[in-house]
Amino acid sequence: MDEKQEPDGIVLTEAQLKSRRQRSIAIALALGVLVILFFAVTLVKGPAVLVRPL
Fold it and tell me: Which of 4, 8, 39, 47 would you call most buried, defined as having the most Cβ atoms within 10 angstroms of its Cβ?
């Protein structure tokens, strides 16, 4: 009963894990830049953003 069991699913190599981490960081940075861009545009437009005709 002390058999060594193989892990279920796919086991990634070190290179694949590094690539995944770099891709995740790139996506997070792109999302952060997008959030900052939307925030900056909102500040530039000012309170006029909230004044809309019905």
Answer: 39
Give which of 28, 26, 24 is closest to 16, Cα–Cα: 24
Maximum pairwise Cα distance, the chain = 74
* C-alpha dihedral, 40 to 43 to 45 to 49, nearest 10°: 110
pLDDT higher at 50 or 42: 42
DSSP string, 6-49: PPSS----HHHHHHHHHHHHHHHHHHHHHHHHHHHHHHHHGGGG
